[in-house]
Design goal:
The protein is 63% helix and 6% strand.
Length: 238
């Protein structure tokens, strides 16, 4: 299991909003696809949700999705195909995921092509196609992962040629870590900035300005890119 890439993939697929809205199914929803429960989540459609609450929802929903998949007793899947089932459980819950009987049977038989085909031949896929006609759907992307056992390109390290295998392995780990780190920065840091005091926000911006000054004295393009992204996230324009 790869919890970091699994959760990053879920965030990428979910429609993040910090104001409660009605999802296509008609349920009040907020954050990363969190379905609000009457009597539990004290927010109404149109309410702005504190960032701390959104992060708490996501953590709880991810734990529930992981538990749902484990309770269904799938065979060892590998990180990628396990992430597919967790992604589906996060989106639809255990009961609806359990309804993919033919897909889950194929998974248990390790017939990945059939499992992918069954995922695509589903009411869920047809619903998604109805929401965005002619566009690639979440089910399309997850089926491709199920079929190939590979992460999407944006979560996958580039192959490195002509290097020692140990060096390639370490470089791959660092590259994937960098990609995931930037995803987390872009999604999480704005939430944190929205929840802390203006005084601390100012201190963070001053610290990023200091990093920018240091990066200006190096010859590293990576330094420039990282500092540029940080400046954008914390709202530094000067």
């Amino acid at each position: 299991m790869d919890p970091l890439r699994t959760s990053t993939l879920v965030k990428r697929e979910e429609d993040y909003r910090d104001v409660v809205y009605l999802c296509p199914g008609g349920f009040p929803t907020g954050g990363w696809g969190h379905k609000l429960m009457p009597g539990v989540d004290d927010y109404q459609v149109g309410d702005k949700v504190p960032q701390v609450a959104i992060l708490r929802w996501f953590e709880a929903d991810m734990e529930a999705a992981l538990a749902d998949v484990e309770s269904m007793g799938p065979p060892p899947l590998g990180d990628v195909r396990h992430a597919v089932l967790v992604n589906m459980a996060f989106c639809m819950g255990r009961s609806r995921l359990a309804g993919f009987v033919d897909m889950l049977t194929a998974v248990r038989m390790e017939s990945w092509g059939i499992a992918a085909d069954e995922l695509l031949d589903s009411l869920w896929q047809r619903d998604l196609q109805g929401y965005a006609p002619g566009k690639e759907t979440r089910a399309d992307r997850l089926a491709r992962m199920m079929r190939t056992g590979k992460w999407p390109e944006w979560l996958r390290p580039e192959p490195l040629q002509g290097q020692d295998p140990k060096e390639v392995g370490m470089a791959s780990i660092k590259e994937v870590g960098a990609k995931i780190g930037m995803q987390l920065l872009e999604t999480t840091l704005p939430l944190v900035l929205g929840a802390i005091s203006p005084m601390l926000v100012k201190a963070i911006r001053d610290a990023v300005r200091g990093l920018r000054d240091v990066a200006a004295k190096t010859d590293s393009k990576v330094d420039d890119i990282l500092v540029g992204i940080l400046c954008t996230i914390v709202g530094i324009e000067d």
